[in-house]
Amino acid sequence: MEVLLADYLGFCYGVKRAIQMAKENAAKDGTSCTLGPIIHNPQMVRRLQEEGVGTVSSLDAMRHGTIIIRSHGVGPSVYEEAERRGLNMVDATCPHVKKAQLSAKALVDEGYAVILIGEKEHPEVKSILEWASGKARIVETEAEAKAIEPCARLGVVCQTTFSRVRFERIVAQLLEKAREIKILRTICTATDQRQAAAMALAEKVDRMLVIGGRNSANTTRLAQLCAEKCLTFHIETAAELQPEWFDNIEKIGITAGASTPDWIIREVYKKCQNR
Ligand code: SF4
User: Fold this and answer.
1) Are residues 225 and 255 in the same domain?
2) Across residues 27-40, what is the average pLDDT?
3) What is the pLDDT of residue 43?
4) What is the rounded CA–CA span in Å between residue 266 and residue 238?
5) Residues 194 and 268 in one domain
6) Which of 37, 136, 190, 251 has the fewest CB atoms lying closer than 10 Å?
7) Do 138 and 56 fall into the same domain?
8) What's 55's domain CATH number?
């Protein structure tokens, strides 16, 4: 059986950078904490905890020490609150996310009615909304875009990890809605590269393995895309591999979300090769 890896998989630039910054600021006394899990991967969160970087869900839990902002970013109120509390801040917001946040703010400042294309519950989307002073309307589906009232000037910004295909379909609906429309294409290429590489591989193999946290939106999306091409299994670690998945197949493909550590990908790859 052949085991094939997607051309692009695993940690993206923003996640690598955030983890590096967290490690550099680790404090064994538990006073370095990320605000929310650094990435949507429980294994990596545990490993960082062992290295001295904890997790808090709110600044209320921090009386002193260093708060690390993860790659998804936060709204301006968190910066103000951290300063008010006298906390040391390490801002690991991915530069691409920062660009989306500032783009939304600029569109509001320029007087556009702002549409933020993205998943309503995603932390990055919530942070972008806050940078837009709460004045953006979040649109997640074509049906929601269709329901928008026509207006004079529409500004569009997007969650960095949103599917490009869905983004273009939603934009096609929005083009009907305003005389002037300004579209800021803030989708990050890491997402595109991983999705395109995963789909290309899924076409060539009998089964796909998609590795990453079940709470990771980008990994779940990879699994959905691969499942359109072949039988696909979403796993978090090599321990979940089932012997029957390898029965009567010639090729198995592996991909991993942008928040999946290399060591987990290596373990899965090795275990598949040893079948
Ligand atoms: S997926 Fe893109 S925007 Fe998100 S953290 Fe990675 S590099 Fe940054």
Assistant:
1) yes
2) 89
3) 87
4) 9
5) yes
6) 251
7) no
8) 3.40.50.11270
Residues 163 and 178 in one domain: yes
Selection from 102, 106, 108, 78 nearest residue 91 by Cα: 78
Q: What is the pLDDT of residues 114-148, one digit of tens each?
A: 999 999 999 999 999 999 999 999 999 999 999 99
- Token reading at 226: 């691969």
| Atom of ligand 1 lying closest to residue 95 CA | 8
Rounded-to-integer distance, Cα 39 and Cα 45, Å: 7
Helix (H) or strand (E) holding 271: helix 262-273
Ligand 1: does its nearest atom lie under 6 Å from the Cβ of 188?
yes
Task: Determine the residue type at 204.
Answer: K
Q: Is the CB of 94 under 6 A from ligand 1?
A: yes
Question: Locate tokens 């004079």: which residue?
Answer: 152
Of ligand 1's atoms, which has the minimum distance to the CA of residue 71? 5
Q: What value does the mean pLDDT take over residues 31-55?
A: 92
160-216: pLDDT as tens digits? 988 888 999 999 999 999 999 999 999 998 988 999 999 999 999 999 999 999 988
Does the annotation mark 124 as catalytic?
A: yes
Residue 30 has pLDDT above 90, yes or no: no
Element (H, E) at 82: helix 76-84
Q: Are residues 138 and 201 in the same domain?
A: no
End of a domain among 158, 187, 216? 187
Residue 191 CB less than 6 A away from ligand 1: yes
Q: Which domain holds residue 219?
A: 2-9+190-273
The protein residue with its alpha carbon nearest to ligand 1, atom 7, reads: 14
Based on the domain organization, do 181 and 194 belong to the same domain?
Answer: no
Q: What is the CATH number of the domain that holds 257?
A: 3.40.1010.20
